Fold this sequence. Notes:
The protein is mainly α and 231 residues long. The chain has two domains: 8-74, Orthogonal Bundle (Arc Repressor Mutant, subunit A); 79-210, Up-down Bundle (Four Helix Bundle (Hemerythrin (Met), subunit A)), CATH 1.20.120. The protein has helices at 8-25, 37-44, 48-60, 79-98, 102-107, 109-123, 128-145, 149-169, 179-190, 194-210, 224-228; strands at residues 34-35, 64-67, 71-74. A three-stranded antiparallel beta sheet has the order 1-3-2. A hairpin with a 3-residue loop joins strand 2 and strand 3. Helix 1 (8-25) packs across helix 8 (149-169), helix 4 packs antiparallel against helix 10 and helix 6 (109-123) runs antiparallel to helix 7 (128-145). This is Transcriptional regulator, GntR family. One of its GO terms (molecular function) is DNA binding. InterPro entries: GntR_C (IPR011711), TF_FadR/GntR_C (IPR008920), Tscrpt_reg_HTH_GntR (IPR000524), WH-like_DNA-bd_sf (IPR036388), WH_DNA-bd_sf (IPR036390). Residues 10-77 form the HTH gntR-type domain.
Amino acid sequence: MAAKTVTSKQVEVQRIVDVLFKAIAQHRLPPGTRLIEAQIVETLQANRNHVQAALQRLALQRVVTIEPNRGAMVAQPSAKEAREVFAARRAIERAIVESITPAIMHKQRQRVATHMSNERKATSATDRRAIVRELSEFHLMLGEISGNSVLSEILANLMVRSSLIVALYQRNDVPSCASDEHQQIITALENGDHGRAAAVMLEHLGELEDQLDLDDQAEPEVNLRQALAGL
């Protein structure tokens, strides 16, 4: 079977998707932010059709919402969706850590060591965006070194959606991902203890979800007659 040719349009659309993904994941674009096409075109020096295609792709991934007459905006996940995203993360990230062997860890030791050093530097400083970036990158790194591209791609989407969820529902302004728990996972993987690595990862994700205020709030009942009376 002949290999598919990647067109210049596909490359450009992917570039725009990647930039928007990164901006959302690092909380540069909070939930509800209007994504004005003209501004994206100007800032990224992109073609308008390519920007529209990128926004449509992000909408399919539930990272962006597109509404008639209002255009595109960064998604605002519901509390129900937040719970579902974390349930999905538990399944995907457990599968990822269970697939990483000591041989993989040895081969990737320099990348892992460099990341953990960067993560510790970030968490000991006060740059919130740097902290968010490095803590999120840990999970993405595990997905990439696992060698399973499907799991890695699914996780990348879940991580961006998690960033939106944290921005909306986290109880405080301190990033909740903990570097010491990350180190425990790394140590377990280096030792080939998949049970320990999976257990720490699941506990870790449970703690992240527990730090979110996901209590369901009933929608207020509106009396339409009273609301419209006197107008």
